[in-house]
Amino acid sequence: MAENQTFAEQHLPYVEEELVSFIEKHTTNEELKKSMLYSVNAGGKRIRPQLLLAVVASFHKTVGAGAYQTAAALEMVHTYSLIHDDLPAMDDDDLRRGKATNHKVFGEATAILAGDSLLTMAFQLVSMAQIESEPKLLLIQQFAQAAGGAGMVSGQAADMQAENKTITVEELAKIHEDKTGKLIEFALVAGGVLANQPVEVLEELRQLAGHLGLAFQIRDDLLDVTSTTEQLGKNTQRDAELNKSTYPGLLGLAEAKLALDEELVAAERTIDRIQQTVASFEARYLKELVKAFYLERGTK
Question: Taking the CB of residue 139, how many other CB atoms lie within 10 A of it?
C-alpha cells in the first residue's frame, strides 16, 4: 500500500473498473446502459465491497481479480435494490446520493429494467469471475440466498408490510436482519470463502455480520432523524412520513444510540475472537473500516 493511501483508495478503483466495464461490455441497449451507469456512478461509500476486500486482506491473502469481481457484483445487487426501493410503488423517493433518483431521470419502466439487469448481471459476473469452480459455486449459492426470498427481498417485503403498524423491536430487528444484514453477511462470508477459511471461521464472520448489519440499520435510522438532506444526500424524515417503525421511534434517541454502541462493541469483540482463532488474522483492516464508516455521516 502506498504511503498515506487508505485501504479504500488502494482497492476500490479496481472494483469501480469492474463495475463500469462489465456493464458497458454486456449491455446492448444504450438507454438501459445509461440508466444502470447513472445509479452505479452516483457514489456511495461501497461499504459492502470494502468489507469483502478487507476480510480477504485480513487473512493475508492476495486481493486479486476474483475478489474485485465479486465485490463489483455485490455492489450491482445493492444498487439494484436502491433503484427499486426508490420507486413510487415502494418508498417513492426523488433523491438518492445527492442526485435525482433513477426513475425521476429515466422513467419508471427503464428504472425497473435497470434494476432487473443489475441483479441478473451480478450473477453473470460472479459466474465469469477468476475463482476456482468449487468456491465459485458456493459464492453463487450464498449470494442468491442473501439477495432473494430468504434474504434481502424478504426483508424488503416485510418492511413494506410493517408500514402503518406497531411492531416490536424484535420484529424490527428481524426485518433488517434480512433487508440490510444479509448482503453485509454475504460480504464478510464471501471474503472468508475467497480467503480459503474453514467453516468455523466463516461462522464467526456471520456473527460479526449480525452485529454490523444491526449497527448499520440503527445508524441509518438515527441519521434519518438527526441529519439534514445535504449531509445524507437523500431526503430525511422519510421513515416518519411512511409511518415506518424505526429504532429511534421504538427506543428513543438515547436508547437507540446506546444500542448502536453495544453492537459496535460486540463487533469489535468478534473481530478480536477471530484474531485469537486464526493467528495470521490481522484485525486492523476491519476495525479501521468499522470505525471510519460507522462513526461518520454520509450516504450508503
Answer: 23
Q: CA-CA distance, 139 to 193, in Å (whole number)? A: 8
Q: Which domain covers residue 113, as residue numbers?
A: 7-294
Whole-angstrom distance, CA of residue 159 vs CA of residue 90: 10
Give pLDDT tens digits for 242-252. Answer: 677 899 989 99
Q: Which residue has the cell 412520513?
A: 241
* Grid cell of 240 as nine digits: 416518519
The pLDDT assigned to 1 comes to 52
Q: How many domains does the chain have?
A: 1
d(CA 96, CA 83): 9
Residues facing residue 99 across a β-bridge:
96
For residue 229, is it within any domain?
Answer: yes
CATH number at residue 103: 1.10.600.10
Determine the longest span between alpha carbons in the chain, in angstroms: 52
Answering whether pTM is above 0.90, one says yes
pLDDT tens figures, 217-242: 999 899 888 876 665 566 666 666 66
Q: How far apart are CA 39 and CA 188, in angstroms?
A: 24
